[in-house]
User: Fold this.
Amino acid sequence: MMEVKIEKLQMQNLDEFWQVFAQILKADFPGYSKSVVDYFLTRMYLKDNFDHWLKTDWKVILIAKNTKTEVKIIGFAVLDKPYGGVCFCRWLGVLPELRKNGIGRRLIEEWISYAKNCGCDKVEIASQPNAKKFYEKCGLNLEGKRNLSYFGIDQFIFGKVIGEPRDEVMVSE
Ligand SMILES: CC(C)(COP(=O)(O)OP(=O)(O)OC[C@H]1O[C@@H](n2cnc3c(N)ncnc32)[C@H](O)[C@@H]1OP(=O)(O)O)[C@@H](O)C(=O)NCCC(=O)NCCS
Assistant:
């Protein structure tokens, strides 16, 4: 029996998160070449960088945890710190063997609820082509397509309006 909890990643679980993050980046983003994935993992999304981002609140990482097994982290959503009233989800993944169990949808729901709590009026994500159906099913709206965008892939732009734009949120910090 699986019991899934979504929560914010704490520093003591950074290693476990990063293993899952690296595994999914290597296996499940077929549009990125091997050297691009290596670049992400050795230059951009290093464990040390996540450590810094967690300490400075520069990113928020939501994790899906199976509370009943030894391997606890089974999915994640890496969120940029809200900017201009928008919360952007940078990465989303669920372990391959546990997909199609509603875990991705729960991460999306938790992301939206986090964004609402921050006072954001919008959430946005850039989807690789093979995840397009998933985002449609989660109720996000297709807002456009970028051809051969960053790091050489087509991206479907999804978003959802979740509130009214508020100046005090947009200009905070
Ligand atoms: C995309 C991903 C996060 C989805 O996670 P998941 O836990 O399998 O998603 P869910 O089980 O919550 O799916 C929600 C709905 O989307 C559907 N769905 C999920 N993945 C799908 C896919 N690849 N194609 C079509 N439909 C899909 C599910 O069947 C479900 O539909 P339902 O409401 O009719 O039952 C997961 O497949 C993944 O990690 N993929 C690799 C990384 C990736 O592509 N991340 C997104 C990058 S932008």
